[in-house]
Amino acid sequence: METLNLLGSTMGLGLVAGLNLYATVLTVGLGIRFGIITLNADMAGLEVLASPYVLIAAGVLFLAEFLADKIPWVDSIWDAVHTVIRPLGAAVVAATAIGAVNPETAIIAALCAGVSLSGHSVKAGTRLLANHSPEPVSNIVLSLIEDVLVVFGSWLAMKYPAVMLTVVVIFLIAFAWFAPKVFRLVRLEFLAVLALLKWFFQLVGQYVFGLGKRRHLATADGVSVPVDMIESTDGGGADADLNDDLRCSAGKGVKNLRHSVGHLQISGDSLVFVTKRLFRLREHRIDRDAIEDIHFKQGLLLDRLIIRTNGKQQHFFFFKDIANRGQNVYERLRIHKKQR
């Protein structure tokens, strides 16, 4: 029974740490300090969380996450950075709780890190979906719900570990079912953050050190377009340049390929999204002459291209890059549509 209680407490703390590590540490530390949480002998090591130094550090970091977690796309960047931090933090909390250095401690710490990574993956994937909505309210609501769940879950893990262990098992069963979708979302977020960092450093090199500047001209409606895009529309020129590498992700409306990362190929008469799904190549084709409307929206982490055909919208998300390929694709398709 003592082993089950120990697993329930550590796995439960690992799960909520995957949502918010700093809130977990702060909740448990304050609970211990004010006598709300009573530690048994097996978890006496957690007494360190009640230290004023730990509480101050956890409080400052929690405040930073509380603010970042409610801003669209900033929350996704924050989650990407914490993909490693939260599981490692959960493992440290588990090891600290047990105190003794033995194989059992290592196994429980590893299990705790795995549960934390699962919780983090669900949170990151849910936030990425919410960030695709046009309003910021969903981010704030989700963040507040997560904060409440972390506080309640931390208390439940310490007070009723057997109940929390049941919750963790149910969560892991559900996670195994949704894992492929969650994995694709987290992978998309991670790649988007890497692309954003690369874009930022290239931008610094371009404008601070004057490297690789690209000339632009204004189109008739005032849109700034790179000079190499103001070319013929017969499959050469700009389209040839675009065909080099149009890495993007499929979104809503792209049947059976949503959140898959692949390449968008543009030819004279069609757009073809190619990706690998279930260990085989898949493609989604759009007739350029069938395009009814096109929209392009820039985001902090990903840029979105919306194509409407037959009254239905299809979304594609482009990673940030110095060539601004998403904007260029939009301009090419818009010019082609006007010339039909």
Question: What does this molecule look like?
Answer:
- The protein is of the alpha+beta class.
- 57% of the residues lie in helices and 16% in strands.
- The protein has two domains: 2-194, no CATH class; 214-339, Pleckstrin-homology domain (PH domain)/Phosphotyrosine-binding domain (PTB) (PH-domain like, Roll).
- α6 (137-159) packs antiparallel against α7.
- The protein is elongated and about 75 Å long.
- The chain starts with a helix and ends with a helix.
- 38% of the residues are buried.
- The model is unreliable at 214-244 (pLDDT under 50).
Spell out the blueprint of helices and strands:
Blueprint: H1 2-19, H2 21-33, H3 52-68, H4 74-98, H5 103-131, H6 137-159, H7 161-208, E1 216-218, E2 224-226, H8 238-242, E3 247-250, E4 261-266, E5 270-277, E6 280-287, E7 291-297, E8 302-309, E9 312-319, H9 325-339
Antiparallel strand pairs: 1-2, 3-4, 3-9, 4-5, 5-6, 7-8, 8-9
Helix pairs in contact: 1-2, 1-4, 1-5, 1-6, 1-7, 2-3, 2-6, 4-5, 5-7, 6-7
